Amino acid sequence: MTIAQVAEAAEVAKMTVTNHFPRKEDLVFDVHESFVASLAEVRGRPLVPAFRRAWRAGLERRDALLGFSGPEFARMVVESPTLLARLRELHEEREKALATALSDFDEDTARAAAAQIAGVHRLLFDEVLRRTAAGEPEPEIAAAVGRAGERMFDLLEAGLGSL
């Protein structure tokens, strides 16, 4: 579907669509601003337990920002190289936003911590998306990703526990 077709279906001018969604892919990832900001909004120290608590809360509510999206949406994303590329960019933007938010650490520490924390979130997001696209039931996905997430946050705790 073209942006012109989207505008026509929404009964708005094409410029209205492009003003709100500068990239066609952002029509699909309409929560991109929330997604990018989500890690930077986590507050608390020690650092890793704060992110673990926030992730657990998102897992409990099956948050779309953790990849819970429904099978049709998940398949559309995983089958589209363009959408997967945009998703990678959004993960990178989220990591940079987190590094900026960790301004109470020196730049190298902030960037390293952000890369590790965002990396865990990306891996878990990708697993949710992959399993959803494969048609696994949401409770099974949540249970499997929950176990994987706990292991990954344990690894983060071992490396970043002093922050």
Automatic annotation (TrEMBL):
InterPro entries: Homeodomain-like_sf, HTH_TetR
DNA-binding region(s) from the entry: 2-21
Keywords from the named record: DNA-binding
UniProt domain HTH tetR-type: residue ranges: 1-39
Claim: DNA-binding is one of the keywords in the record: yes
Gene3D superfamilies registered for this protein in UniProt: Homeodomain-like, Tetracycline Repressor, domain 2
Source organism superkingdom: Bacteria
Protein name listed in UniProt: TetR family transcriptional regulator
Originating species: Amycolatopsis tucumanensis
